[in-house]
Amino acid sequence: MSEPEKIQLAHGGGGRRTRALLDRLFLPAFENPALARRHDSAVLSIVQELSLPQAPGGGSARIAFTTDSFVVSPLFFPGGDIGRLAICGTVNDLAMAGAEPRWLSAGFILEEGLEVALLERIVSSMRAAAREAGVEVVTGDTKVVDRGKGDGAFIATSGIGIVPGGLDISPARVRPGDAILVSGDVGRHGIAILSVREGLIFEGDVTSDVAPLASLASAVLASGAEVHCFRDLTRGGLATALIEIALDGRAAIEVEERDVPVNGAVSGACEILGLDPLYVACEGRFVAFVSEESAGRALAAMRAHPLGQGAARIGSVGSDRPGTVRLHARSGGSRPLDLLSGEQLPRIC
Amino acid sequence: MSEPEKIQLAHGGGGRRTRALLDRLFLPAFENPALARRHDSAVLSIVQELSLPQAPGGGSARIAFTTDSFVVSPLFFPGGDIGRLAICGTVNDLAMAGAEPRWLSAGFILEEGLEVALLERIVSSMRAAAREAGVEVVTGDTKVVDRGKGDGAFIATSGIGIVPGGLDISPARVRPGDAILVSGDVGRHGIAILSVREGLIFEGDVTSDVAPLASLASAVLASGAEVHCFRDLTRGGLATALIEIALDGRAAIEVEERDVPVNGAVSGACEILGLDPLYVACEGRFVAFVSEESAGRALAAMRAHPLGQGAARIGSVGSDRPGTVRLHARSGGSRPLDLLSGEQLPRIC
Questions:
Q1: Are B164 and A50 in contact (CB under 8 A)?
Q2: What topology does CATH give the domain B14-163?
């Protein structure tokens, strides 16, 4: 008899194995149109449900709904902690659907023996991040597991946001000719976690970029840019986000490696560790796919915002080979980017 | 220096320590009106947020939003499993706010090494429970933690439901003279978990009562009964639910012990184990506080529903000693019921 198939760390890494689990298990089991769109948030039409009249001027009112569980290790890291991460991660998933985040829930799974003072620091960091993002934590739950059956604290947050009438932002809307922007330098969150986890000291300080991105996303929308898709860069970094969009939107993505902003300390750390910064996680960065004509104003709107000062244009959508991402390397030549099949940095969020 | 305060299993037990953590830490940190109502779900008015016109006939449209994390051990037990529990628990929290459950999210925290076949059984059980409850799982997330840092699988579910216009169901509406009904016999879930966890064999089969209660709650509402409060009986059982309502609604609750339905096998098991069935968890039972005049029709509506056949009237709200629950014992005499200060049955949900 063969060994039964088991869950591996890579099933949670956001790469090929995570996608396989989704395709094989979760999507068929819970089959419905919202889930099938594979976006960070489900966008739900609520007007009919509430038996409300349509808003004047058309455009049906919708809410966005999302969830994320956070298992980052360690709980505190340069630039943030699991509490800030839990608020920002859920706020960002809502913002990536074009929604204005409003209400969050928080579920805590605590390990017996966790110091209450640590929990207080985590909760106080959540409170600060929620204020920064303009959201309220309106409901919650606490469970405790026996010592050795958890790891300090896990936090599951869900969120509800309001999607402005008429707005449709998703991989399906990406078109040949779209410009691709990134809101800042990539890879800081992953390297910050790794530095403290492994006790590594890198030249220059690397702090996590974890931040709530709703006001930045809404500044891009308010600029009048024609936005087709937003995606935040979490597990698997920039490369994974682009590959997912290419697959889900049947887009032919072309990226210029030299145009992708990477902080010097991050790039040095990646070199030492043999990591590709394109695959290292961020928690405060996103990509925007906008029409070529609006690339300028979208980029200007990003750069005028404190969280988007390092924004850059990194590529375009072509028409050859839909469903792939092609990297034009700094060294010349080009190669396709692939989903990671293993786990690069476990438990970074 | 004194030992720093640490999280204990009892902080997750739903009793005195859980309440203290909520009062001291979570409520002040996330202060807002929805959270302060301490209901199972936050009820949120959405009409203004969506810039929608009011519905004709008044009554502002609202949604209910709730979350729960599930850490039950073992993952499979007589009558259910963590997947069914995760769907039903969240559906029931919505139903207890008078909402019609619609959309759920599911976040999985899996331990490295979990057999994929087990996960498949859990997900398939979630799918069946979601169908039974008439809800859709529209968004989700999977994280994996290293071996020994989790316990097979934890599941966090959140949910959104629609609250019919004008409906207000909460502890604050409980009034002297209200009749108190319970939807069936109590304590089966806790004893079912304990029997398999401890390898105990009890006389008669004890299977968990885990079930989605939304259609039963809505049958009570549809009967025309004047419902003031619903509360499902989870951690800490019937006694804890009543004490929470007494505290939050400043109600003087009187309960007749002899009228509380307890299955013979549960009562036998409790006797052997030294447990009070009033404090043992259910996952498919709730209490309803209704006006005295509508007690008859509410009870009839419950008994006509497959999940409420064992419903009974168990007491009334008086006016002496608001904020307390008084048990009129089978043996004669009466005594106040208190929140448990320790953990009776850890990880039953």
A1: no
A2: 60s Ribosomal Protein L30; Chain: A; (3.30.1330)
Q: Convert the pLDDT of each residue in B249-289 to its tens digit.
A: 999 999 999 999 999 999 999 998 899 999 999 999 999 99
What is the 3-state composition of chain B as percent helix, strand, coil, each rounded to the nearest 5? 35, 25, 40
Which of B166 and B25 is assigned the larger pLDDT?
B25
Compute the nearest-CA separation of B191 from chain A (Å).
19
* DSSP output for B288-301: EEE-GGGHHHHHHH
Q: Which helix (H) or strand (E) holds B139?
A: strand B136-145
Q: Which residues of A touch B12 (CB under 8 A)?
A: 110, 142-145
Domain ranges in chain A are: 14-163, 171-336
CATH class of domain segment(s) B171-336: alpha beta
Query: How far A319 CA sits from the closest chain B CA (Å)?
Result: 31
**Is the pLDDT assigned to residue B177 strictly greater than 60?**
yes
Q: What is the mean pLDDT of residues B188-198?
A: 92
A223 vs B298: CA distance, rounded Å: 56
The pLDDT score that the predictor gives to residue A230 is 97
The three-class DSSP label of residue A235 is coil
Asked if B280 and B174 touch (Cβ cutoff 8 Å), the reply is no
**Topology agreement, domain B14-163 and domain B171-336:** no
Judging contacts by C-beta atoms under 8 Å, the chain B residues touching residue A51 are: 55, 61
pLDDT of residue B167: 87
- DSSP states along B235-278: TTHHHHHHHHHHHHHT-EEEEEGGGS---HHHHHHHHHHT--GG
CA dihedral of B79, B81, B83, B88, whole degrees rounded to 10? 40
Q: Minimal CA–CA distance to B132: which of B284, B234, B235? A: B284
DSSP state, B342? S
Is the complex ipTM more than 0.90?
yes
Mean pLDDT by 10 residues, chain A (349 residues): 87 89 91 85 77 53 92 96 98 96 96 96 97 96 95 97 88 96 98 88 84 98 97 95 96 98 95 94 98 98 98 97 96 93 81
**pTM above threshold 0.80:** yes
List phi, psi (to 5°) of A109.
-115, 105
- Is B139 in Cβ contact with A109 (below 8 Å)? no
Report the residue count for chain B.
349
Give yes or no for a contact between A51 and B163, defined as CB atoms under 8 angstroms apart.
Answer: no
Selected residue of B105, B162, B234 to mutate for chain A interface (largest A Cβ count, 10 A): B105
Least CB–CB distance from A9: residue in B112, B115, B154: B112
Higher pLDDT among residues B68 and A345, named by residue: B68
Residues of chain A with Cβ-Cβ distance to B158 below 8 Å are: 67, 105, 107, 156, 158
Mutate to test the interface with A, among B96, B108, B143, B348 (most CBs of A within 10 A): B143
Q: Do B156 and A44 touch (CB under 8 A)?
A: no
**Contact criterion met (CB below 8 Å) for A11 and A18:** yes
Q: Kindly indicate the confidence band of residue B342, based on its pLDDT and cuts at 50, 70 and 90.
A: confident
| Residue (of A310, A326, A88, A118) closest to A215 by Cα position | A88
pLDDT in tens, B232-253: 999 999 999 999 999 999 999 9
